[in-house]
Specification:
The complex is a heterodimer of chains A (about 350) and B (about 300). By secondary structure, chain A is an alpha+beta fold. Chain A has helices at about 45-55, 95-105, 110-125, 140-150, 170-185, 195-205, 220-225, 230-235; strands spanning about 5-15, 20-30, 35-40, 60-65, 70, 80-85, 155-160, 190-195, 205-210, 215-220, 240-250, 255-260, 260-265, 275-280, 285-290, 300-310, 310-320, 325-330, 340-345, 350-355. Chain A is about 25% helix and about 35% strand. Chain B has 13 helices and two strands; from the N terminus they run H-E-E-H-H-H-H-H-H-H-H-H-H-H-H. In chain B, strand 1 and strand 2 form a beta hairpin. In chain B, helix 4 packs across helix 8 (about 170-195). Classes of the chains: A alpha+beta (about 350), B mainly alpha (about 300).
Chain lengths: ~350, ~300
């Protein structure tokens, strides 16, 4: 990245008593990027974001905003705005006054303020609601008011704490697209904290998967999905089948002796004979092999049950070891019935080799 | 209430509080109202008409015809009552103002302290209630009188040369009222501050407001219901306060409680004192109604 990152964490750590909330995290976020901090609750993603906003001070490390050290700057002096999970709308102020709050603090003139407020009202589609108080708004309207308020100051870096968490499912999907659209139009960097992998996958340019205060992997959604670097990431993002066993080199390949059969996996550097490894395969990369077909990566089992998902079906197949493997196949293909024997097959390239 | 009508449980839940109010609030109030409409006589009781249980309903109506508003007219003609009302309102108002200035920072400090220590701090704020009210007011005499602790201390540190005359003045009355009613003001303010979502302050800071601006624009406006509740909780009883002005005030301290006491016990003019009480009630009900209206409007319900 040649540009100065809009937000940088440099070896940042934060402890609360004996708990390490954030553990030596370094990550750069580029201007205009849509970045997601993804992880289960308690993984430190919210603490990390609160350190960017200035609500928490790191015990170690530095936070840089637009190249300038902001580690010790109080929240009201940071060129950053945040959309709160609870929205934190001022209950005694109208929608318009909520949006104008940050503009007044920035010393906008009366005309500039009115113009900016109406611009934000239009951006967030809040026309006609300007005089309403927060308790007179629906959940979606509150969410859009909070967004408008946090964007009003024209920040280049917006932090969003579970921005869709309080919305119902249908509204959430619509709002995802709205957020992406607004982010593209304004060109500001958005950093979203979420525990919802679908949300992160569909919105973000890059995702940081966090676990126990550390970032496990940073990458584009497809990267993280196709090439997870650890079992944790593989299992956190989407569904995946893990076949673990002792590995041995076999020319260009690795051979993994899994309980359910022998697996051929792409080679990986620095693997000694007998090392415990795992082959991770996404359900949609597994097919049912036609009877009589021969080749590598074939696992025999019995179809346990089938879930119909419209465009595809998800099969759970009981393998030799007793484990249930997931297979996702287009609904248009002929499908085995529960109770029938089936052979699973996948390409060597579909297997991601991970430490067991 | 759902349409199901009154079940027995619901009925008893209503009867108990309303019965209590009727028995201990409305009935005495009706008595006072009745006496205020009677005429003062030298007798026992010192007013007429006096109702007896033997009169029957018809007899009561007959006697009620003798009601007059003479006592109320008397209030208007007696400058002492007007002066007492004004002086009481002024003393209670000034006291409430000072109490708010002390109580707000106190409540804020408690509300922002470590959650584990808050209940202890609140307990300390109401700790004076564990000692008799009368003893605490007497203690103020020892503090405020000319050779009292306060004057000794001030002279010892060389701040004053001669003792200040505080005891037996309106200043002493204000000090006594502020001291006595302070917990009633602290509690509702603390309650409204403690309920405030800390995220609101963070949002204000995030939007560029410094600590002071955040206080004026967010914390204070959102705590106003608590401030008003605390102020009313103090102001209303303080207007009718009798003990504190009697013990700490001077001969020129005029408050309505004392004036009514004089009419009851010195002049034995029960109708005048009762009329005084009814007028005071009307004066005080006004602010309460205003506050209630404001509360319901604020909730937008």
């Amino acid at each position: 990245m040649s540009q100065t990152p809009i937000l940088q964490f440099e070896r940042v750590s934060k402890r609360f008593g004996a708990t390490v909330a954030v553990d030596d995290v370094s990550v750069d976020i580029a201007p205009g990027e849509f970045f997601a901090l993804l992880g289960p609750s308690g993984c430190g993603k919210t603490t990390l974001m609160r350190m960017a906003a200035g609500f928490e001070q790191p015990d170690e490390g530095r936070v840089l905003i637009d190249g300038a050290d902001a580690t010790d700057a109080p929240p009201h002096r940071r060129p950053v705005n945040m959309m709160f999970q609870s929205y934190a709308l001022f209950p005694h102020m109208s929608v318009a006054d909520n949006i104008a709050f940050g503009l007044k603090a920035a010393g906008f003139s009366r005309e500039a303020l009115a113009a900016r407020v109406s611009e934000m009202v239009r951006l967030a589609q809040l026309q006609g609601l300007e005089k309403r108080k927060p308790h007179q708004l629906s959940g979606g309207q509150k969410q859009r008011t909070a967004l408008a308020r946090s964007l009003a100051r024209g920040t280049k870096l917006l932090l969003l704490d579970e921005p869709l968490g309080a919305l119902d499912r249908k509204l959430r999907e619509e709002t995802q697209f709205e957020l992406m659209d607004i982010q593209k139009r304004l060109g500001a960097a958005f950093v979203v904290v979420t525990h919802d992998q679908d949300e992160a996958m569909s919105m973000a340019d890059r995702i940081a998967v966090m676990r126990a205060g550390k970032i496990e992997q940073v990458g584009a959604p497809a990267d993280i999905y196709e090439r997870p670097r650890s079992r944790y990431v593989a299992e956190f993002i989407g569904e995946i089948n893990i076949f673990a066993g002792r590995a041995s080199r076999a020319g260009e390949m690795l051979r993994i002796e899994a309980q359910d059969g022998e697996i051929e996996a792409p080679a990986r550097d620095g693997v000694g004979d007998g090392a415990p490894l795992a082959c991770a395969v996404r359900p949609e990369r597994i097919r049912f092999a036609p009877a009589g077909e021969e080749g590598a990566n074939r696992l025999a089992g019995v179809v346990h049950d089938v879930a119909y998902r419209g465009d595809h079906r998800v099969f759970r197949v009981r393998l030799k070891s007793g484990a249930l493997a997931r297979v996702a196949a287009p609904s248009a293909l002929p499908a085995p019935q529960p109770g029938e024997a089936a052979t699973l097959v996948f390409d060597t390239a579909a297997c991601v080799v991970l430490d067991a | 209430m759902p349409r199901g009508g009154l079940t027995r449980g619901r009925l008893s839940a209503l009867v108990i509080p309303y019965g209590w109010l009727a028995l201990f609030f409305l009935a005495p109030l009706a008595l006072v109202l009745k006496i205020s409409l009677s005429k003062s006589i030298i007798a026992q009781p010192p007013y007429e008409p006096a109702f007896g249980a033997s009169d029957g309903l018809a007899g009561w109506f007959e006697k009620a015809r003798a009601f007059s508003v003479a006592a109320y007219r008397g209030l208007g003609e007696d400058p002492l009552y007007l002066e007492s009302y004004l002086s009481s309102l002024a003393i209670a108002g000034v006291s409430t103002l000072f109490a708010l200035l002390i109580a707000y920072p106190l409540a804020l400090a408690i509300a922002r302290s470590d959650p584990r220590r808050r209940s202890l701090l609140i307990a300390l704020a109401v700790a004076p209630f564990w000692t008799s009210f009368l003893i605490r007011v007497y203690a103020w005499i020892a503090i405020l009188k000319d050779e009292g602790f306060l004057n000794h201390a001030l002279m010892a540190i060389g701040l004053i040369d001669a003792p200040l005359t505080i005891y037996a003045t309106n200043v002493a009355v204000v000090i006594g009222i502020v001291y006595s009613y302070l917990p009633f003001v602290v509690l509702p303010i603390y309650n409204s501050l403690e309920k405030q979502d800390a995220a609101l302050r963070e949002a204000a800071a995030d939007l560029g407001a410094g600590p002071l601006a955040t206080f004026w624009k967010v914390t204070l406006p959102l705590s106003l219901p608590g401030v008003i509740a605390g102020a009313l909780l103090m102001f209303i009883p303080a207007v009718g306060e009798f003990v504190i002005p009697d013990l700490l005030g001077g001969s020129d301290t005029i408050m309505i409680g004392r004036t009514m006491w004089n009419d009851f016990f010195e002049n034995r003019d029960w109708p005048a004192a009762s009329a005084g009480a009814i007028v005071l009630l009307i004066l005080l009900v006004g602010p309460i109604i205003w506050f209630e209206r404001r509360q319901t409007k604020g909730q937008g319900a």
